[in-house]
Design goal:
The structure holds three protein chains of three kinds. Chain A is mostly helical. Chain A is 69% helix and 4% strand. Chain A has a domain at 565-615. The termini of chain A are far apart. The mean pLDDT of chain A is 84. Chain B is mainly α. Chain B has one domain (2-301). Helices cover 73% and strands 1% of the residues of chain B. The termini of chain B are far apart. Chain C is of the alpha/beta class. In chain C, 43% of the residues lie in helices and 12% in strands. The two termini of chain C are 31 Å apart. Classes of the chains: A mainly alpha, B mainly alpha, C alpha/beta.
Amino acid sequence: MNTIILIFIIFLAGAILTFLASNIKGLLKEVLFLASVIVPVVMFFTGVKAGDSFNFHLAGFAFQWEITPLGYLFALIVTGLGVMAAIYAVSAMQKTKNLGLFYFNFILSIMSMLGILFSRDLVSFFIFWEIMTWSSYLMVVYQGKDVQKVGIKYFIFSAIGAYAMLMAIVMVYSLTGSMMIDKMIQSYAGFAFNMQIIIPILFLIGFGVKSAMMPLHVWAPGAYSHSPMAFTSLFSGALSKMGIYGMVIVMAGMIAYFPEGHWFRIVIAWLGGITAVGGTLWAIAQDDAKKLLAYSSVAQLGYIIVGVGIGTPLAMLAALFMAVMHALFKGTLFMAVGAIEKQTGTSNFTEVTGLIRKMPLTFLASLMGIIALAGIPPLGGFVGKWMLYESLIGSDHYLLVIVIFFSSTAAFLYCYKFLFGFFLGQEEKEWEHVKEAPVLMVIPMIILAGGTFLLGTFPGLVIKPISAGLEQLGYAATQGKYWEMSMLFNEWGDQVVLEPILYAIIAVFAFFLVFLLIKNHKNTRYVSTKDISTSGEVPKEHENLTFIQNFFQPFLRAVEPLMKRQIDFYYNGFGKGIEALFDFTRRIYTGNGQTYALYAIIFVVIFLLLKTTLFGI
Amino acid sequence: MELFLNILGAIATVILAFIVGMSYGGIVRKITARVQNRKGPPWYQNFIDAYKLYSKTTAIHHGWMHRMGPAFLMVSSVVTLMFVPVLNNGGWFENMNFQGDLIFLLYIMVFGSLGMALGAGQTGNPNSAIGVTRGLSQMVGFEIPWVMALVAMMIQYKTTSITGFIEVQQESGTWLMFSSPFAFIAAVLAMLGMFRYSPFDIVGAPSELASGPVSENGGKYLFTMMSSGSIFTFAKLTLYVDLFMGGANNLLVLLIKTFALYMVPVLYGLVSPRYRTEQAVRYFWGWPLFFGLLAIIYAVIF
Amino acid sequence: MSYDKDSHKIFDFIQNWARKHSIWVLAYGTGCGAIEIPPTMTSRYDAERLGVRGAATPRQADVLLITGYLTTKTLKRVIRVYEQMQDPKYVIGFGSCTINGGMYYDSYNTIKVLDKYLPVDVYINGCMPRPEAVLAGFAKLQQLIAEGKANGAQKYKENLEWYRENQKRISPHWVMPEYNW
């Protein structure tokens, strides 16, 4: 039997079995859940390679599943993060109700993502897309909080995206008579001009919703923060990447013959840039870690969209590398928030402080995740940022690079807020009982964070499959031109050699750390965070002096004009307008027979008056 | 053997930067005193202070992050120094000049402040956290004109490496401060924030924040920070000289150029009061941003 | 053996020289004497030329300057600040009030003899002492440091019980962390 179909069968059977086993006491359901995630993933890594395919006919449509190099790259993200999140979820979701539904949706969403990546025809693509949307929707409303507001918002936007995509698919079918993605890409150049514009736009609406592109991002902060954190790491890390995957196909495949610097590309890139700035600024203003990370996800996806929009080889490398990095570090961070929420019961910075000595491993993982997020060498985030800047400068997007730079510098603010809010500051008696998260939650975090560390010095490990994926889309080979295993080049040949940088950083850090530790070793003592210089006053035990309220108030004051309105405002206005329109329409139907008779008479009169002009009778 | 020599060269560079940075600090104190009609401390006062801090016999810490903070800071300064060409012809001070470019440098320069900020955060002193938020906000402010200046120069000369800029200047024979003047103006205005003299000394703010992020540090920690600050000052000044003033062929020229450049933030600071945080941030988004835009337009046109 | 001793002496000499020329003062303005600090620091008398400069927090400071009378309420804070300072540390009693109570000799809410509560290294007499006197006090402290005789902190450590007893007599509801050096 073909391995590809076997993978899907195991996923599906595993999902159903886990769901059925959910009421059985003991560890059966956990074992089933882990098995049905890990077994297909192991099969994927051992039994499948790029180029394998599986074809069948059903209901008159030809289905074609094939593993393309690009799909393989994204499948690495999905499977890698999926396994980590699954291990994390087993421990994190203990003692929650309705666990069967969670596991069921979890497995289904991994399956649907792999399905999206493997399908080469639009029918199965759309079907898997819908499965993904539904399973993630059920996750968003899983905890039952604010279902009205958050769930409906996510659902409406997903529906808009799906319908736009469906429309595009129907158009493609009517134009080409085929559902194959390859066929669509090939015949795209022969379409009429209006179709050439409309089809990509409709597709991009569909993909833009999933990747939270401005102005379609409004569902993201709520949905990310309301689903269980075990799933959010997958949601933000992998699920949103499906939008990016679609965008890459559209931007690099379909309209590849649009020259670099075409207005269409620039519009997409600027939308990405605005997304990045808006997401960053709103992330700074958040007091809840989940919301902060959710907005930060929106911003990070903005960078990726910029790269995909620009579309030069270096920009595509940057975008896809950042997609991988984002999966790693955002997975880590959401898991860390989940761990903190599980141990303390809250994810609000203003309530929890000083966890560093209680949860050191979580802190370590978060620290690495944050350094990667901020793009500081020697961790992997830097590589993606560097390539993005160089590609923007090299392809003459001068203002966009400033916008991106502003956004990623401002990102330091919320990065610090995240670490400070949870882990630093004064230690409080209220949180003295907090212990490190269970091993099964810590291990996935540490592994993912370690991934960012490894890729920071040897980005070639991931750029190699990225490069292969890009070659499939028609780009020239980039190895040696833009990258080596641990070297990066820009268009002008300037380079960054990552390996010696890492060694230099480690050497200097180690030297001064040893100096600081050894010097006066015997006369250096630990003092509690209550023993601080506060003009001789001794803070009482219940007095918490941590500064966390209005943390970046001066900065937010400085950027106030940029943050006057959220996009939500306009959507609400739009919604109200529509409502008013319907309200008006409703008034026509008064239920009064005489009014209806009046309408009929008016209609007849108008008809008689205009019949000559309208019908030429 | 080569590696050994490289390490030796790196150590020599660091010692040079330490000595020059410390002396500059002392001279600045002297100049400040003269401007205020005082006699002032001797120029080597900073060395004495540093040695005194080093010789403090006890120390406290609030946890691991607090202990590591100064080491993070040192990484940032020393690694930055390694990537900035001290002299045009390399020689002893070549270090890692060819292995990173300006964008890398921009990011490694932030590394230390973030590490230091974490250390300051763990002390639990509210003043430290306030100082850090001020510092980060101010950084977002001045990085924008600074990056605009750099981007303008990058697109004008089609290179992003510092050695590339030095070569450009050697070939054309003019300093970049003359051939791309607006970028220079924007960069110098950004420099005011970078060096944190008045009116941008909002991070330390001795009178209201009790020296902000460093308020819980004494003895060896403060010694490391002080050394790191001196090295960083030298590295940044050398970077500016390399980018805008044609680099330097020998140490004497380097000292003259860096010192002249250093006087800009120092003298401007001497006659200025202190800004509030949002004023400081907005200052950089006013004229400096305008000059940055001008620089980009200039670079695109020419 | 004698060689070791000598080299140790040279080392001490350099160290003391550095300590002597770099005095970071935590001016704890407890009393009216604080008004004499600004003229001492600014252009007329310029203490910075002697290496004397202000410090912002006790962690960074070398010298605790008790400027004038010390009320019984403030004493606790001052002790706290002193205990937060890092060795080597010195105390300067500033003004007559710190010596014998001065004009507050019969006041019910000031302490009279500072040395009973904190190990004072140098007293500066006067009410107020003029900046010249303050500078003379610093010079005396420098001389003591150079000779290695400014060891008030040592005295405090050795006689901690005695000091504590005196301190607790002034503030009976003592809720401070113990001195742990």
